[in-house]
Each structure stands twice: as C-alpha cells, then as structure tokens.
C-alpha cells in the first residue's frame, strides 16, 4: 500500500473518523448503560432486601411472641413459681411446651429448665423427655443483663439429655433463649429455649436472590453466618476481606451498597429487640451486566457489518474518485515523453472532470501557441531575409559599412556617416535580435533609422513625428511590423512632386487594447479598392502563412523574394495575438491614409 497516494489517504481519512466516532459512541453508550444498570440493580435489590427484612423481622417477632407464652400461660408460670414436682405439674409443663411446639411448623424442639425443681424438659416431635438434677444447659442461659438471646445457626442437640432419642435426626437450627423471671423482680424461674428450623429462614432468603448466579448471606453482630446459599459456610465466621473493610458501614447504616472485586454488594440491617442481623447480597458484575453485554455483542456485530459496508463503499468511492486523477497523470506522462497530441478523454462533470477538461484545453492551447510561434519565427526570418534580399552576407556588409562610416568621418563628411549609421542600426536590428517579439521602443528606434535613410533619399520632402507615452515603450510587439507600413507610404502615398509630406505615429491604450495609429497626407485609396484591399490583406495573410507553416524547413531554404507588405504585418499580428488583433485602413480628408493597429493588452 502506497501511503503517499491520494487513494490510500482518502480511504484512511474516510474510515478512521467513522471507526473512531462509532467506537467512541459505543464506549460512551456502554458506560452509560452499565452505570444505569448498576444504579437500577442497586435500587431494585435494596427494595427486595427491605422486603426480606420485613419478612425475617416478622418471623423473629412471631418467635418472640411465642416465647412469651411462659408468662401468658398462668398454669405454667404458677408451676415454675411454686416448683411443684408431681404428676399434675409435669402434665402442665408437657401441655404448655407441646402448645409452643405446635404453634408453628418451623419449630424443631422446645427446651425448658425449672430453677426451683431443677428439672429439664425437652419437647421434640411431640415426644417429651424430662430429667432431674441437672444444671441448666449453658447455651440456654442468656448473657448477663439480657433476658432474651438469639443464638446463631448451629446443629441441633438434646440440651444434655442423659438418654437421647435415637430416632430424632439432627438438623441446622437457630435458637431463641429466654429467661423466665419472677415479676417484678429479675429472679429467674426458668430458662426457655426454642429451636427453629433453618428452613424457615431459607424459604424467605431464597426469594431474595438467584442461587445460580448470586450469593446471599445473613450474619449476626459478631460476623457468624446464620444463612448462606453455600451450606458449608453456615455457622462459620465471615472471613471475607470485603466484609471486614465495611464493618463500620454495616454498623452505621440501615441500608447501603458498594462495589468491589468485580461484584456489587447490597446490604440491609435487621435491627430487632432480640436480634441484630445483617442481610448481604453479592451480585457478580458479569451477571449484573449480562443484558448490557449482550447488547454490546449485538452492537459489535452490527458495527462489524456496518464497517464492512463502509469500507467497501469507501474503497469503491475512492477508486472512482482517484481513477480519473490516475488517468490524468498518465496523460501528463505521455506529454512528458513528447506526445503533445495525446487524446484526453472526458472524465465527468465534477471538479476532476473540469480539471481534465482544462488540461485538454491547455494542451490544445499549447499546440496552437507552438504552431503560432513557429509561424511567427518563420515569418520574421522571411521578413529579415527578404529585406536583405537573401543574397548579401550580413556580417560582411555590416563590417563594410563600418569601414565606410569611419572613412566618411576622416574625410569630414558627417552626413554620409549619419546615413551609414542608420543603415547599420537597421541591419543590426535585423541580424542580432532573434526574438519574435520586441519592445515598442526598439521597434521605434528601427523606424527612426529607416526614416533617416528615406529623408536623404527624398531630400527632406517629408516630416516624421512620433508621439508615444513612456509607459507604452515597454509593450511587447511583433518584430518588424512598423517598417512595412512606413514603406508603403513611400511606395504609394508620397508624390515625387510634393515637398510638404507628413507622416505621424501615435500610440495609446484603454482597458483592453493598445492602439498604434500611423497617419500620412499622401494619396488616398479609392473606397472600393480600400474595402477589397482590407479583405484581401486578411485572406492573403492567412493563406500565405498557413502554407509556410506546412512547408516547414523547405520554405526557409527556398524563399522567393516578395514585397514585404501589410499582409505580412496583419498575419504576424494574428499569429501573436489571435483573432482579437486587427489592422484597419481608412482614408483621411482631404487626402491621406490612416492605418490603425489594434493589439490586445
């Protein structure tokens, strides 16, 4: 791939902004979408955990109400207060514990220890067991200063029963322990423990999370796990770094969220009279952003398809745009090798098509200018050779004239020296200035020298005047265009009998043209002949120089002497300036001729 080509740059600069803009748009869209998803997920899960908090709080409140049966059951309270140890007392205790056991299906077993009779009773699956002489089970005694204590999840046991019931299977429970006191004092009458199946908490927790993707923890104040979707963690201490880092937030806020380790955590405190638990939900970012990532994948597929279409369209467009440029470069290479007649085909109507059209026009103009320059050079050489009659060695003649001029000064004949100097200037102008165009100043100097010779020839029977502004002296004109006009005056206009002949040259300029006007008071041209002459001059000049251009070098070698006339001037003007140049003839009153040369600026 050529990085310097317009086609490559066009493809790159068309595709690169599209990729950058689409990529930036997708990145911004994904960022905003993920942020919105996270915020929405946090809000939804906060509401969900709050609902879970209400359900768990209801469960704990119901459990606390059931434990207060020890006070509301007057018979049970009386037995505990009196410490009776008889059949009636045992029946009362069995009936009361059985009522507590059956109050809700979530209760696994109920334990009661009477302080006065020092008897322990265990009600499990409607089977009562009672034993005497034992101390209250250690876990059943609430901490000092507390009458109610909620024990975290643990495996069920028989509270020190000396003869366990083998058919009873153990399972995970959490326990409410209550000290039954003699009201209004704090003297203990007994200790009541109610084991609640963990399944009661599990039923509520499973509604709060997706066990396949998410995790849920219920912990107590010291970080023991009461419930978790991972059974092996239940009853264990929470040892996660994120938990330790946010302990302070857990204790200060009822509800909140944080993000760490590519997971979103939402928590809710359960602050009850007999429990201070914490619900924590962990949502992996991968699961949280599952829908957003699916949308990104769809967008990436659409982006790939769109990019493929864009690249294909860009390449086709760039080829279509640059193909005419390449073709134009091929045309230029052909011109560089010298083929100026290369066929330039049209390339449409757009800017490149206009450029190709201008190039074709330029080549036509160059070919036309080359042809004109060739004709002009051939015409100038023809005029010079005809003026010198093509027979005299110019250098020899020029040297001879200088010798004669020196001899005239030695013999003190200055008039002869002046004439020879004028002739030498004319020869030098013709021989040494090889340019096809000269300044108007140089052309006027040549005319002045020519006039010096004619004054001597015609014994000063005419006067010559030139009026040209200084700013026009540097205007470029074809070489030897004024002398033929002056020469016509002496051939056809000046009478040999007149002594007051006049010829005057003026130059002026407007916005578009330079005008050179030559007037004389010689013989006028008959009107019919004047019109015919004007048409003939133009027709003869064009025909003559077209023929010379086709003849080429053969014309240079075999020139036929001919009179240098107005047709020569007009033809060379048109070779240089085109059809805009003109030569006009008109008669003056009462006598004379005016010739007007009109040259485009």
From TrEMBL:
Give the UniProt subcellular location, in the record's own words.
Cell membrane
Q: What is this protein called?
A: Histidine kinase
Record-linked InterPro entries: Bact_2-comp_sensor_kinase (IPR050640), HAMP_dom (IPR003660), HATPase_C_sf (IPR036890), Sig_transdc_His_kin_internal (IPR010559)
Under PANTHER family, the record lists:
SENSOR HISTIDINE KINASE YPDA, SENSOR PROTEIN KINASE HPTS
Protein topology in the membrane: Multi-pass membrane protein
Q: Which residues are the signal sequence here? A: none
Q: Does the keyword Protein biosynthesis apply?
A: no
Q: What are the protein's GO molecular function terms?
A: ATP binding; phosphorelay sensor kinase activity
User: Could you list the residue ranges that cross the membrane?
Assistant: 12-32, 296-319
């Amino acid at each position: 791939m050529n990085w310097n080509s317009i086609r490559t740059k066009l493809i790159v600069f068309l595709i690169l902004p599209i990729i950058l803009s689409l990529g930036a748009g997708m990145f911004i869209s994904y960022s905003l979408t993920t942020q919105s998803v996270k915020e929405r997920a946090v809000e939804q899960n906060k509401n969900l955990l709050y609902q879970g908090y209400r359900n768990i709080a209801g469960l704990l409140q119901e459990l606390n109400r059931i434990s207060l049966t020890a006070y509301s059951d007057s018979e049970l309270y009386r037995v505990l207060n009196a410490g009776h140890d008889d059949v009636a007392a045992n029946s009362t205790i069995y009936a009361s514990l059985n009522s507590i056991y059956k109050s809700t299906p979530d209760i696994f077993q109920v334990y009661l220890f009477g302080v006065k009779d020092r008897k322990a009773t265990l009600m499990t699956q409607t089977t009562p067991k009672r034993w005497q002489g034992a101390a209250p089970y250690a876990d059943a005694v609430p901490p000092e200063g507390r009458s109610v204590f909620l024990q975290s999840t643990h495996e069920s046991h028989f509270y020190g029963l000396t003869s366990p019931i083998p058919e009873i299977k153990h399972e995970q429970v959490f326990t409410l322990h209550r000290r039954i006191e003699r009201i209004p004092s704090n003297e203990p009458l007994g200790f009541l423990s109610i084991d609640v199946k963990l399944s009661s908490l599990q039923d509520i927790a499973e509604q709060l999370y997706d066990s396949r993707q998410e995790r849920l923890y219920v912990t107590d104040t010291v970080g023991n796990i009461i419930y978790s979707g991972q059974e092996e963690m239940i009853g264990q201490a929470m040892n996660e770094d994120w938990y330790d880092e946010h302990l302070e937030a857990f204790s200060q806020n009822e509800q909140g969220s944080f993000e760490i380790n590519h997971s979103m955590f939402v928590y809710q405190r359960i602050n009850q009279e007999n429990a201070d638990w914490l619900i924590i939900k962990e949502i992996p970012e991968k699961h949280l952003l599952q829908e957003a990532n699916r949308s990104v994948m769809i967008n990436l597929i659409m982006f790939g398809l769109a990019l493929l279409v864009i690249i294909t369209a860009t390449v086709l467009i760039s080829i279509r745009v640059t193909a005419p440029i390449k073709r134009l470069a091929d045309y230029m290479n052909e011109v560089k090798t010298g083929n100026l007649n290369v066929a330039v085909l049209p390339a449409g109507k757009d800017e490149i098509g206009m450029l190709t059209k201008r190039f074709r026009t330029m080549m036509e103009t160059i070919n036309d200018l080359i042809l004109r320059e060739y004709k002009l050079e051939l015409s100038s050489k023809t005029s010079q050779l005809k003026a010198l009659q093509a027979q005299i060695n110019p250098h020899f003649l020029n040297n001879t004239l200088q010798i004669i001029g020196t001899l005239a000064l030695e013999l003190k004949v200055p008039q002869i020296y002046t004439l020879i100097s004028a002739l030498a200037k004319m020869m030098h102008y013709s021989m040494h200035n090889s340019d096809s165009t000269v300044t108007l100043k140089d052309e006027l100097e040549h005319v002045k020298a020519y006039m010096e010779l004619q004054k001597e020839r015609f014994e000063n029977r005419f006067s010559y005047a030139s009026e040209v502004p200084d700013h026009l002296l540097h205007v470029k004109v074809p070489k030897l265009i004024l002398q033929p006009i002056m020469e016509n005056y002496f051939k056809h206009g000046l009478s040999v009998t007149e002594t007051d002949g006049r010829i005057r040259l003026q130059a002026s300029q407007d916005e578009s043209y330079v005008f050179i006007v030559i007037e004389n008071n010689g013989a006028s041209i008959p009107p019919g002949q004047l019109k015919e002459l004007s048409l003939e001059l133009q027709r003869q000049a064009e025909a003559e120089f077209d023929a010379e251009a086709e003849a080429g070098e053969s014309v240079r070698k075999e020139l036929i002497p001919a009179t240098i006339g107005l047709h020569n001037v007009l033809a060379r003007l048109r070779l240089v300036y085109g059809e805009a140049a003109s030569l006009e003839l008109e008669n003056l009153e009462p006598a004379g001729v005016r010739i007007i040369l009109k040259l485009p600026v």
